[in-house]
């Protein structure tokens, strides 16, 4: 079964997905992480994606479908959290065509006040080695610039600055928000209040998942 986790950039999808993996045995598939791995490896897909991602724009649907299929094929776990897909109506329709093998159980919408998103994203730092995520104010590492988990160097994502975040929020409004209506129509939409501390949000999201 698939649980889609959706919401605006900075809503906390990655943070909550990592907790669900750790505490509830989910396998996370993050299309953003998968694309960043392709960029790091210097593949053709990575080269194509790099410019679009740095600009805050979406990567073409056909590229994403290849990535999704490869990630699903490499997954043996029964509970899959899909973070970052679908991001537009066409991707939502595509995912629906896979329902025999991968039925979507729910689409959890982490709903966060828009004024919070910018500060969450501009303060985010990510480990270049293990991918762990921190925030300079809300969840700082013990030693500035150094990952608590593996000692790797913390970096700022190229799309985490004010200019690019504005583009990403526009893309979210215009292309991703209709996906929420799509799942409402399918009877799969579940809103979760994403404001408050990571722990508070995790409690809400865990309750929402228990009730599925
Ligand atoms: P992706 O990596 O999916 O980025 P995004 O959706 O913009 O989401 P983010 O990862 O930026 O935010 P998040 O909600 O995971 O927040 P996080 O938990 O890290 O995609 C990147 C790009 O890839 C796209 O722009 C596009 O180009 C491409 N792409 C990916 N999928 C695609 C698709 N399907 N189709 C086409 N293109 C695609 O939290 C953010 C910060 O806030 C962190 O520092 C965290 O510590 C902090 N924080 C989180 N929760 C809290 C809290 N409760 N309180 C305080 N701080 C918090």
From TrEMBL:
InterPro entries: Adenyl_kin_sub, Adenylat/UMP-CMP_kin, Adenylat_kinase_CS, Adenylate_kinase_lid-dom, P-loop_NTPase. One of its GO terms (cellular component) is cytoplasm. ATP binds at residues 10-15, 124, 133-134, 196. Its EC number is 2.7.4.3. One of its GO terms (molecular function) is zinc ion binding. It catalyses: AMP + ATP = 2 ADP. It is an enzyme of class 2 (transferase). Residues 30-59 are annotated as: NMP. Keywords: ATP-binding, Cytoplasm, Kinase, Metal-binding, Nucleotide biosynthesis, Nucleotide-binding, Transferase, Zinc. The keyword Ribosomal protein does not apply. Residues 123-160 are annotated as: LID. Pfam families: ADK, ADK_lid. Coiled coil: none annotated. Zn(2+) binds at residues 127, 130, 147, 150. Pathway: Purine metabolism; AMP biosynthesis via salvage pathway; AMP from ADP: step 1/1. AMP binds at residues 31, 36, 57-59, 84-87, 91, 157, 168. It is found in: Cytoplasm. Consists of three domains, a large central CORE domain and two small peripheral domains, NMPbind and LID, which undergo movements during catalysis. The LID domain closes over the site of phosphoryl transfer upon ATP binding. Assembling and dissambling the active center during each catalytic cycle provides an effective means to prevent ATP hydrolysis. Some bacteria have evolved a zinc-coordinating structure that stabilizes the LID domain. Belongs to the adenylate kinase family. HAMAP family: Adenylate_kinase_Adk. Monomer. Catalyzes the reversible transfer of the terminal phosphate group between ATP and AMP. Plays an important role in cellular energy homeostasis and in adenine nucleotide metabolism. This is Adenylate kinase.
């Amino acid at each position: 079964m698939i649980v889609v986790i959706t919401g605006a950039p900075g809503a906390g999808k990655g943070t909550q997905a990592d907790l669900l993996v750790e505490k509830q045995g989910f396998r996370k598939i993050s299309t953003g992480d998968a694309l960043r791995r392709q960029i790091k490896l210097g593949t053709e897909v990575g080269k194509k994606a790099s410019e679009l991602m740095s600009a805050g724009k979406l990567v073409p649907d056909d590229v994403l479908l290849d990535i999704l299929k490869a990630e699903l094929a490499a997954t043996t776990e029964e509970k899959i959290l899909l973070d970052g897909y679908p991001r537009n109506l066409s991707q939502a329709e595509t995912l629906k065509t896979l329902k025999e093998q991968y039925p979507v159980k729910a689409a959890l919408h982490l709903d966060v006040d828009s004024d919070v998103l910018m500060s969450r994203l501009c303060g985010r730092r990510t480990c270049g080695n293990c991918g762990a995520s921190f925030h300079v104010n809300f969840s700082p590492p013990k030693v500035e610039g150094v990952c608590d988990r593996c000692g790797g160097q913390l970096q700022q994502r190229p799309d985490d600055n004010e200019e690019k975040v504005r583009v990403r929020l526009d893309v979210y409004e215009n292309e991703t928000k209709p996906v929420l209506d799509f799942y409402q129509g399918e009877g799969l939409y579940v809103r979760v209040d994403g404001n408050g501390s990571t722990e508070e949000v995790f409690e809400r999201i865990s309750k929402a998942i228990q009730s599925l």
